[in-house]
Amino acid sequence: MATTNSLIINSVDQASKKNQKTLTDINPDANTAALKTFATKLNAITTNSLGSIAKVTREEFDPSITYHDIVWTLMPEGTGVTSDTSTNTVTVTRSQLPALSTDMSEWAGFKIMCDINVNGASHLLPALQTINTLRITYKMDSWTKDPSSQYDDVFIPLFPDFTNPASGGTSFYSMYIVNTGDIYPCTAYITLPAGSFISGNTTYYYNESVVTVNFV
Amino acid sequence: MADVIKTKNTLSLEQEFTDGDTRTITLDNPSPTITAAAINEISEFNKLNQCTKGDKAGANFLRFRSAKITVGSTTYLDLTPA
Question: CB B38 to CB A45 under 8 A?
Answer without folding.
Answer: yes
